[in-house]
Amino acid sequence: MRGYGQDLHIVGVKNYSDIVSTATNTTHIKVTGHRVTFLIPFVTITGDSVAVTVEESTSAATTGAEAIPFTYRLSSTVAGADTWGAVTTADSTGVDVTATDDDKILLIDIDPADMSEDCNYLSVLLSPGASASAVGVSAFALVDTRYKQLNHVSST
User: Do the Cβ atoms of 63 and 140 come closer than 8 Å?
Assistant: First the structure.
């Protein structure tokens, strides 16, 4: 078998849930590869936007985590289309995903070379606005591994 299953370490970092009114971090990923990409499918966003930031830390904990810049793209509506918006740079304040972005995927890219020297963990913080009434979301991390293999070393 040869394919994405060996070239990319695919990790579920947020089970689907409605995070309305609760800022939620994904599971932390230990950066062990050349690049990390987060895929965040937004199924429902009602009433307000969701602020999305990427945080780096020295451990798999939010204590002492610092928001960092990243690049991102937003898909068109997922079903039946494969169109992506332009690559855009977000500063450490992140990006807002709005209620008009139901059924879209936010793709976030992080180059480990841009991380602080002592930080080797990443997570995504999803913060719904105060008047959000529904935010159905999940998240996955794709780690471009240094050494391709069938059974990957844990990144959590």
Answer: no
- Give residue 1's pLDDT: 45
Choice between 36 and 156, residue whose per-residue pLDDT is larger: 36
Q: By three-state DSSP, how is residue 6 classified?
A: helix
Residue 147 has pLDDT above 80, yes or no: no
User: 91 or 5, which is more confident?
Assistant: 91
Question: What residue ranges do the domains of the chain occupy?
Answer: 4-145
Q: In angstroms, what is the C-alpha Rg of the chain?
A: 15
3-state SS record for 83-121: CECCCEEECCCCEEECHHHCCEEEEEEECHHHCCCCCCE
- From 25, 15, 5, select the one nearest 143 (Cα to Cα): 5
State whether CATH 2.60.120 applies to domain 4-145: yes
Element housing 20 (H / E)? none
pLDDT in tens, 1-30: 455 556 777 889 999 999 987 899 999 999
User: Cα(87)–Cα(117) distance, rounded to whole angstroms?
Assistant: 25
Is the distance from CB of 130 to CB of 48 less than 8 angstroms?
Answer: yes
